[in-house]
Amino acid sequence: MDMIKVQIISTETIKPSPSTSPHLKTFNLSLFDQLAPPIYVPILLFYSPTDDLKNHRKRWSDHLKKSLSKTLAHFYPFAGQINKDDAFTIDCNDRGATYVEAQIEADMSDVVLNEPEIDMLQRLLPCDPLEKFADPSSRVILAVQVNYFACGGIVIGVCISHVIADASATASFVKSWAATASGVNDIDVNGVIYDCTSLFPPQDSTVLQQLVKNGMKMRQANCVMKRFLFDGSKIAALRDKISMEEKECFYRPTRVEAVSALIWGASMAMEKTGNIPMHVAVFPVNLRKIMNPVLPELCIGNIYQQATVATSMTEKNVKHSSLAGKIHESIKRMKEDYVRESAEYINMMIRKSNTDEQKNGFEAVAHFAFSSWCRFPFYETDFGWGKPVWVATALRMNKLAILLDASDGQGIEAWIGLTEEDMTKLERDPEILAYASFKPSIS
């Protein structure tokens, strides 16, 4: 597909309205915020053309800006900046969010109906999700780009700094912004700001920052990111197949568990060289509903922990049922034991990061990261002209799979990052081809 021209027509700053009260000027970051990678969480929402959108762009543009300003009054840390003198806090100074408008002289279907390319999708975002900043305080926490297509369709791209928002918090923000824009008043924003430092107090960041840097080095190798679409009926067949594999799986895995096991198994098969004795996969687990008492659904911050699954390549013929079972048990164990073991787990990571043994061991382990955004309400974000016809992301990182719901709510779209060589292998993997396709997102 030829690269479509994206013309920036305006850039401005949107501040909270009303302004943030003086007694709310500092937002404290928790331990998990410290552990978050220094990237943006990107989301793209595609909306079908309507006559109203096409003929009254100025009115809708003003409405989006005003509703964003009102929403920022509740999500006011998103309009601040990392404190230059104290990296453990956000200075809620109402610096504002970046708001970009762009014009694309093409039909939205040129992006959506053709096989989506990550390079094109990234041009619909207001910033590079992996952009590096020497001074963290100079990083804008929230940036938005509203893309107007010639056909009348709109794509809204949102980037939120991971230091203060995980995927759940990102979904809460766009859901709240859309509700404000459409006049819905049943969103409870009272729980948006929740101080998690009492549950997860910050620690000396020197070692923690090194842990994050080590993880980023592994993920930022040159890679390609492609989308694999798993139809709902194919996933159902995969779940049935896994549940019937001998006696290794004693339950029917979830959609996410089944697809993750399939992808992880294919990744492991690429590296059967004997040089990598251990394979490890990580799965972020949202803790909002796990904690006791339950945390507010809309609360911002990084309120998740990684469930870790390990398997040895000495285990011959690793089956999907075995992998799915290990994934399930790891997530279940995290739910049951997290609060009690959390501090011990983090301290162990810090101790190990200081040893040469750990550094050498890190290189001898093949890591793969999964992040499931399924069931987050991205497809419910109606700004007043209807719900999105497609939701995508554009985060290019190696050994990473981001799982999103397909538009029908049954299938899964997996955005997978691998080296070009490994991607070629994955696209030819018989088991991947049996369950995944590359067909358009909507028809």
Q: What class do helices, strands and sheet pairing give?
A: alpha+beta
Taking all Cα atoms into account, the compactness measure Rg is 22 Å
Order of helices and strands: EEHEHHEEEHHEEHHEHHEEHHEEEEHHE
Lateral strand order in the biggest sheet: 11-10-12-14-15-9-16
Tally the beta strands. Answer: 16
How much helix, percentage-wise, in residues? Answer: 25-40%
Q: Please report which band the strand proportion falls in: under 5%, 5-15%, 15-25%, 25-35%, 35-45% or over 45%.
A: 15-25%
What general form does the structure show?
A: globular
User: What kind of sheet is the major sheet?
Assistant: 7 strands, mixed
Distance between the termini: 18 Å
The helix count comes to 13
Indicate the mean pLDDT: 87
Low-confidence stretches: 356-362
Quaternary assembly: single chain
Could you outline the blueprint of secondary structure elements for this entry?
Layout: E1 6-14, E2 26-28, H1 31-35, E3 40-47, H2 51-55, H3 57-74, E4 81-82, E5 89-91, E6 97-104, H4 109-112, H5 118-122, E7 142-149, E8 154-161, H6 167-182, H7 205-219, E9 224-230, H8 232-243, H9 255-270, E10 278-286, E11 304-312, H10 320-353, H11 356-363, E12 365-372, E13 390-392, E14 400-405, E15 412-418, H12 420-428, H13 430-435, E16 436-437
Parallel strand pairs: 6-7, 10-12, 12-14
Antiparallel strand pairs: 1-6, 2-5, 3-8, 3-13, 4-5, 7-8, 9-15, 9-16, 10-11, 14-15
